[in-house]
Design goal:
By secondary structure, the chain is α/β, with parallel strands linked by helices. It has one domain: Rossmann fold. Helices cover about 55% and strands about 15% of the residues. Strands 3-4-2-5-1-6-7-8 form an 8-stranded mixed β-sheet, sandwiched between helices. Helix 1 packs across helix 11 and helix 3 packs across helix 5. The longest helix is centred in the middle third of the chain and has 33 residues. It binds adenosine-5'-triphosphate and magnesium ion. The site of adenosine-5'-triphosphate (ATP) has 18 residues, from helix 1 and strand 7.
């Protein structure tokens, strides 16, 4: 079983526990897709930014070309959060009187320091890429931060949507009281910039949910290694994704030892590994599973990346 069918998707996330090979596999997958003629954008949401090391090419917040048909960018959560706060401030300046702005700034400064803002800002940038960049790219590949974090992020649209819906209802009721009950939602939004902004945001989140909840367009690939703790975390992540309605398109079992190793140490490691591999096959029998061999060296540069690609999706 290979990840080949996923090359046809529009959005593919790679996620998993720290250090298992998410960056390596997402880079190898993106490279393979671009070599098959798809226009690919590889996005790293991981603060460690090791995609640049693998391609031996500087990657920043703006898109750069790594290979023909393959571009990449790195999202810096902190930087996005700052940009986000600035944008909110600009909106408020536009919409309200000086007195209100002053009070609102205090609130915003408090919000800027609260946990979760970096995540919201990150999500906003991901939404922008998924919704707006689809005309330019056939496939967007996300190399995500370790599991818990990413799954929270993907579950956020739901939480934020219901919150915004409540705000919209509240705001619309106010507008209707102001103008008489016969205003249409569109007219109300046009007349009230706050309502308009809320509804636009709501619209974007619904579109995101539509795309990431559609298994014919979006898949999540879980990356793991044959080790006890990783298997448990992978199982939890698979359950969470399932609950969230996101397709688990595949499970990569990375760093599988070669068969031909000599010596007692390796025989013992290999025996233990076999137990875990069997457990993975048993517990994740429903998922498309791919094994990737442990290479003799760290994965850097096109040659070793290609060696990983071929194990993920085969040769062209
Ligand atoms: N199959 C493999 N063979 C040899 N080395 C590998 C293999 N897969 C990954 N590595 C190496 O393991 C290290 C960790 O891999 P990688 O950076 O892809 O993991 P990650 O899941 O993205 O980590 P993090 O959670 O820190 O972002 C890297 O040095 C990488 O080159
Ligand atoms: Mg990484």
């Amino acid at each position: 079983m290979l990840l080949t069918p996923l090359l046809e998707q529009q959005v593919v996330f790679f996620g998993g526990k720290g250090g298992v090979g998410k960056t390596t596999c997402s880079a190898a997958f993106a490279l393979a897709a671009s070599r098959r003629g798809r226009r690919v954008l590889l996005v790293s949401t991981d603060p460690a930014h090791s995609t640049a090391d693998i391609f031996e090419h500087r990657i920043g917040p703006d898109e750069v070309e790594l290979q023909p048909k393959l571009t990449a960018l790195e999202i810096d959560g902190e930087g996005e959060a700052t940009r986000y706060i600035d944008a909110v401030k600009r909106d408020i300046n536009r919409m309200f009187s000086a007195g209100v702005v002053k009070a609102a700034y205090k609130q915003i400064e408090a919000a800027a320091a609260s946990p979760g803002l970096v995540e919201v800002a990150l999500l906003d940038r991901m939404i922008e890429l998924i919704i707006n960049r689809q005309q330019v790219h056939d496939l967007i590949v996300f190399d995500t931060a370790p599991t818990g974090h990413t799954l929270q992020l993907l579950r956020m649209p739901e939480a934020i949507t219901s919150w915004i819906q409540a705000l919209v209802r509240h705001r619309r009721a106010l507008v209707e009281i102001d103008r008489g009950a016969d205003v249409t939602p569109v007219a109300a939004a046009a007349a009230d910039p706050v309502l308009g902004a809320l509804e636009r945001r709501h619209g974007r989140l619904s579109r995101l949910r539509e795309i990431i909840g559609d298994r014919s367009r979006t898949s999540f690939v879980l990356v793991s290694v044959p080790e006890r703790l990783v298997i448990e975390e992978t199982a939890r992540a698979a359950d969470l994704l399932h609950e969230t309605g996101i397709d688990v398109g595949g499970l990569v079992v990375n760093r599988v030892l070669p068969d031909d190793l000599e010596g007692e140490f390796f025989r013992s490691r290999k025996a233990q590994e076999r137990v875990y591999l069997e457990e993975i096959d048993r517990r994740f029998g429903r998922l498309r599973r791919v094994r990737v061999r442990q290479l003799p060296r760290d994965v850097y540069g096109l040659a070793s990346l290609t060696a990983v690609s071929e194990q993920l999706v085969g040769t062209t």
